[in-house]
Amino acid sequence: MKRLDGKTCIVTGGGAGIGRATCLRMASEGARVAVTDIDEDDAKAVCEEIAEQGGIAGSWRLDVADADAVTSVFDAVADRFGQIDVVVNNAGIAGTSAPTHEISEADWRKVIDVNVNGVFFCTKAAIPHLQKAGGGSIVNLSSIYGLVGAPDLPPYHASKGAVRLMSKTDALLYAGDGIRVNSVHPGFIWTPLVEGLAKASDEGEAAFRKGLDDLHPIGHVGDPEDIAAGIAYLASDDAKFVTGSELVIDGGYTAR
User: How far apart are CA 89 and CA 94, in angstroms?
Assistant: First the structure.
């Protein structure tokens, strides 16, 4: 029996990178997957890929910063698949990299709207469905920069720190309902976005990647599938005694 047989899983930002890998992994574990993304075409492409592999999936366009849209999509997923068992709050943006005093209010709010408010809206919409299902799992994507600091991307780091503590708070609030809430903290992951940055860098893709590799004691950056494996574990009953925890998947970055 596959670990996620019979479960309905919603993944936000499921159209690319870690989100795409998570959707594919969950489908391979037997889940019915709701692929949501602000890019509707990307979500549909992942949904089609799952179908080609014999899995069950549906795609929805979703801007997680829009509370009404979140509620509507979550209700639609429950209507289509019968219930919601797992929510992966993966959607996020990096935002502007500049010193704090040079960040505009608009740039700050943009990151917080997606990375923090989006997690709040999705959790708020999910809880009644999870309670109705008799329990479930929420997995929130934080970052190594929800654990340690760095001299760049102030809004991003603030948002990921918030997600870490939101996860612990909700773990305590909903443990009695059988709802587990955990955060995942990836190191640098070789996603299409990072690859694009590498190709556009002055130093060239190979040097850019080596610089990232060297940040990790294990010797290389991670793959999206590395994170998807951890998310699938937290979503499954294998993690039935795990809540309020931080799953760090970072190649040793924060061990220093």
Answer: 15
Catalytic-residue membership of 156: yes
Instruction: Flag whether the pTM goes above 0.85.
Output: yes
Q: Looking at 13-153, list the stretches that DSSP marks H as alpha helix, in order from N- to C-terminal side.
A: 17-28, 40-52, 67-81, 105-112, 118-133
Q: What is the DSSP letter of 178?
A: T
* Catalytic residue selected from 156, 174, 233, 253: 156
Picking from 4, 174, 163, 192, the residue whose alpha carbon sits closest to that of residue 92 is 163
Q: For 190-221, how does the pLDDT look when each residue is reduced to its tens digit (9 = 90+)?
A: 988 788 778 878 888 899 999 999 999 999 99
CA atoms in the 13 A half-sphere facing the CB of 220: 6
Q: CA torsion sign, 162 to 168 to 169 to 174?
A: positive
Residue 54 class from Cβ within 10 Å (0-12 exposed, 13-18 middle, 19+ buried)? exposed
The beta strands (E) that lie in 62-196 are given as 86-89, 136-141, 179-186
Q: For 81-98, how does the pLDDT look when each residue is reduced to its tens digit (9 = 90+)?
A: 999 999 999 999 988 888
Give, as one character, the DSSP assignment of residue 220: S
